[in-house]
Structure formats: structure tokens, C-alpha cells
Amino acid sequence: QVQVVESGGGLVQAGGSLRLSCSASGSIFSINTMGWYRQAPGKQRELVATITSGGSTNYADSVKGRFAISRDNAKNTVYLQMNSLKPEDTAVYYCNVRDQRMGVGTWNYWGQGTQVTVSS
């Protein structure tokens, strides 16, 4: 029902910045929480940051003070501004979109992932 597409990944030097974007489209009921997760080689997928429809955010401890999540509700788009990047931030970053229709159900959709590589 919903398609999720990420963009903005790439190669950056340590200390640099990247801005990821994720847009949801299709048969959307009502986007609730949107978020970013990442998976590094040999590791489990982990939460990076989430943002609710009301703008409340939360971050993994490892990215607090460096990353900022934001959203444009009119465009069903979520962003992740990543500053002061470290090599340990290297991972595939996935966008998650929670779509909800009250009284019917809630659905989670994932993007295909975008590679972020930070060189030392």
C-alpha cells in the first residue's frame, strides 16, 4: 500500500555531514511515527532516531548531539541530518514509516536502505 524511498547516502570523511531523506507515498491512511534505523556489517539493525507526528523525537545515545531528525508532514517526508560523522556511523540506513488508521490497524513500512560510509 505504501512505498518508502530513501536517498542522500554516500561517502563522507570523518567529521563531515550528510542529510538523508525519506518519502512515503501510496495508499496512506495517516502517518504516525517515522524513523531511521541502521545496520552495520555483522551487526543487528538498530534504532537511530524517531519522530512522532507531533514532532516528539528520540535518539540513540550514540548519535545524540550529532544527528537531528525532522519531518514535513505535508510531504510525508522525514529527514536525518547527520553531523560530525564518525567511521562507526558507517551502515545501511533504513527509513521506517508507521501508517495508522484508527479502529482498523497499524502498518509499518520500510525503505530499501541507503548506504552511508564514513572514512577515517
Rounded Rg: 14 Å
Give helix and strand order, one letter per element, not per position.
EEEEEEEEEEE
Overall geometry comes to elongated
Q: Structural class of the helices, strands and pairings?
A: mainly beta
Strand content: over 45%
Q: End-to-end distance, in Å? A: 40 Å
Helix tally?
0
Number of strands: 11
Q: Pick out the low-confidence regions.
A: none
Largest sheet: 7 strands, mixed
| Mean pLDDT, all residues | 95
Portion in helices: under 10%
Question: How does this structure look, described?
Answer:
The structure is a single chain. With 120 residues, the protein is mainly β. Strand 5 and strand 6 form a beta hairpin. It is 0% helix and 60% strand. The strands form 2 sheets. Strands 2, 4, 5, 6, 9, 10 and 11 form a 7-stranded mixed β-sheet that branches.
Topology (elements, then pairings):
Blueprint: E1 2-7, E2 10-13, E3 18-26, E4 31-39, E5 46-51, E6 57-59, E7 67-72, E8 77-82, E9 91-101, E10 105-110, E11 114-119
Parallel strand pairs: 2-11
Antiparallel strand pairs: 1-3, 3-8, 4-5, 4-9, 5-6, 7-8, 9-10, 9-11
Brief descriptors of the model:
120 residues; single chain; mainly beta
Brief rundown of the structure:
With 120 residues, this protein is mainly β. The chain has strands spanning 2-7, 10-13, 18-26, 31-39, 46-51, 57-59, 67-72, 77-82, 91-101, 105-110, 114-119.
